């Protein structure tokens, strides 16, 4: 593979840690920097603080060899040619991205620069952030010729982050100087040349040596915009299909059929057209708000994004009304919940629609028994176990004697339940599925009352229902 580049990645969250592991996987020497000493210790000792497929394997493969962990940003800067900033850019009160971590890291990098460095924005940042980083570095007395700023947005999804990184649809590099652009292109050369995919230990995915990912070189501003616009567009697709789903419910059509039909149009594409309980997570909600704020600041009317946000909020409320329509009252009811993370495959609960719904159930006086394959520990920090809230270790324990079962995250295992077992485990065979994991017809045949999203409610036969519900 190509010449190894010495890289520092600042921030060991979902993006930083995955990027660090993947840069090592494609042959570079990486120093992963975090100011959280406890996290650094965990990582050094072989722990992996987040749930991500392939990440433990990659870190085991490269720890102490190609990846090291430290809290010393100064020394990491001095030992690296390229420094990726992958710290958090949380939402501030105004909706804009709070860039204070980026600012602090840029200042510290500036104070440590002793020879030419490329400083790369990897975090999701608003357009013009590269200009601010440049000013911060110059203000700290670093001469222009000793650094370049570039933007290399990341498009990985939590849960499939490693595969998304190594088998990406595109690599975007925004740089103003030839030197920075070519150094960053060298970093990705094992992917763009296809060389990585020839390795026997390569993580499998959609790219291969004949079909490597393309690299797009742009201006820094365009790269910043590509990231924000992509996330906002995907969120818009989700809100769009959710409204279409509401129309489907009103007329008795099935949103799954509609989205399949729409997705077959190659101009639309089948992805991100799954109706559900609204998007969540640490990216879409904050990025849509931040992009809207950017537009507002620039005097551009992007009220479309406000609609996207409002539809998303409405979607959670609609789902709750659906639960109410099935259960009538909530006080004292025992409700099983499958899924607490903002989607399946991750332990991340940030802005999770599932948690919003659980909190509302508790406020209305229900008893919730929740199961999530990975997110329970994190959820306990937000909703501690209590007389009304318990966490269990398998889906059937959540369903045990419950008045209804709610499916709130799309973990694969939730779509593969033993329906017979589920039926006799539940007190009433009512499943309210916020992720459309089951076929409504099949659920009725199995004796369930099944409510999902963008599809008509399917009820078990009236006689059976009466037989079970009335004394
Ligand atoms: C998202 C983007 O998909 C990534 O490309 C981007 O790199 C990342 O944000 C980021 O900016 O760091 P992520 O938030 O990990 O990734 O998760 P997604 O898979 O995009 O899902 C986001 C939310 O949308 C979830 O709540 C999910 O359940 C929901 N969703 C997704 C739907 O409701 N329907 C769909 O069809 C797809």
Strand content: 5-15%
Radius of gyration: 24 Å
Shape: globular
Which strand order does the major sheet show? 3-2-1-4-5-6-7-8
Number of domains: 2
Could you name the CATH class of the largest domain?
A: Alpha Beta
Q: Please name the fourth-level CATH homologous superfamily of the largest domain.
A: NAD(P)-binding Rossmann-like Domain
| Total strand segments | 14
Q: Outline the biggest β-sheet.
A: 8 strands, mixed
The helix count comes to: 18
Oligomer: single chain
Task: Give a brief outline of the structure.
This protein has 471 residues and is α/β, with parallel strands linked by helices.
Secondary-structure map:
Elements: E1 6-10, H1 14-25, E2 29-33, H2 37-44, H3 55-62, E3 67-70, H4 73-78, E4 82-85, H5 100-112, E5 117-121, H6 129-139, E6 147-151, H7 161-166, E7 171-175, H8 178-192, E8 215-218, H9 220-251, H10 255-263, H11 284-297, H12 303-327, E9 334-338, H13 353-363, E10 367-371, H14 376-382, E11 389-391, H15 395-399, E12 404-407, H16 419-425, E13 430-433, H17 440-445, E14 449-451, H18 462-469
Parallel strand pairs: 1-2, 1-4, 2-3, 4-5, 5-6, 7-8, 9-10, 9-12, 10-11, 12-13, 13-14
Antiparallel strand pairs: 6-7
The chain binds uridine-5'-diphosphate-glucuronic acid.
The site of uridine-5'-diphosphate-glucuronic acid has 20 residues, from helix 9.
């Amino acid at each position: 593979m190509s010449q190894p580049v010495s890289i520092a990645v600042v921030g060991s969250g979902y993006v930083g840690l995955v990027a660090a592991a993947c840069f090592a996987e494609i042959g570079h020497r990486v120093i992963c920097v975090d100011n959280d000493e406890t996290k650094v210790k965990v990582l050094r000792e072989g722990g992996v603080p987040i749930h991500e497929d392939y990440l433990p394997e990659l870190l085991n493969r490269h720890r102490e060899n190609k990846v090291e962990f430290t809290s010393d940003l100064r020394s990491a800067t001095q030992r690296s040619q390229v420094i990726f900033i992958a710290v958090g850019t949380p939402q501030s009160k105004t909706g804009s991205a709070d860039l204070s971590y980026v600012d602090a890291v840029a200042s510290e990098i500036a104070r440590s620069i002793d020879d030419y460095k490329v400083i790369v924005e990897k975090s999701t940042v608003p357009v013009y952030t590269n200009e601010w980083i440049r000013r911060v570095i110059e203000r700290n007395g670093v001469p222009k010729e000793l650094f370049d700023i570039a933007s290399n947005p990341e498009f990985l999804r939590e849960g499939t982050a490693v595969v998304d990184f190594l088998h990406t649809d595109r690599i975007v590099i925004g740089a103003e100087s030839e030197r920075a652009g070519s150094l960053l292109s060298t970093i990705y050369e094992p992917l763009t040349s296809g060389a990585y995919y020839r390795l026997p230990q390569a993580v499998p995915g959609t790219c291969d040596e004949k079909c490597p990912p393309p690299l797009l070189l742009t201006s820094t501003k365009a790269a910043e915009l590509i990231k924000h616009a992509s996330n906002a567009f995907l969120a818009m697709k989700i809100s769009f299909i959710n409204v279409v789903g509401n129309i489907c419910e009103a007329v008795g059509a099935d949103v799954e059929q509609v989205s399949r039909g729409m997705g077959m149009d190659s101009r639309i594409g089948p992805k991100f057209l799954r109706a559900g309980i609204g998007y969540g997570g640490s990216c879409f909600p904050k990025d849509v708000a931040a992009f809207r704020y950017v537009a507002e600041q620039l005097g551009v009317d992007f009220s479309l994004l406000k609609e996207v946000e409002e539809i998303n909020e409405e979607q959670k409320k609609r789902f709750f009304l659906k639960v109410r329509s099935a259960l009538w009252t909530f006080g004292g009811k025992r409700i099983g919940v499958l899924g607490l993370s903002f989607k399946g495959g991750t332990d991340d609960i940030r802005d999770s629609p599932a948690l919003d719904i659980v909190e509302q159930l508790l406020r209305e006086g229900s008893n919730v028994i929740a199961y999530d394959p990975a997110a329970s520990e994190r959820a306990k920090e937000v909703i501690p176990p209590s007389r009304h809230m318990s966490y269990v270790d398998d889906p059937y324990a959540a369903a045990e004697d419950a008045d209804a079962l709610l499916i709130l995250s799309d973990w694969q295992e939730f779509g593969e339940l033993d329906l017979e077992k589920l039926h006799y485990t539940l007190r009433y065979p009512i499943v309210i599925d916020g992720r459309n994991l089951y076929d409504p017809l099949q659920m009725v045949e199995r004796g369930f009352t099944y409510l999902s999203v963008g599809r008509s409610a399917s009820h078990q036969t009236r006689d059976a229902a009466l037989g079970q519900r009335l004394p």
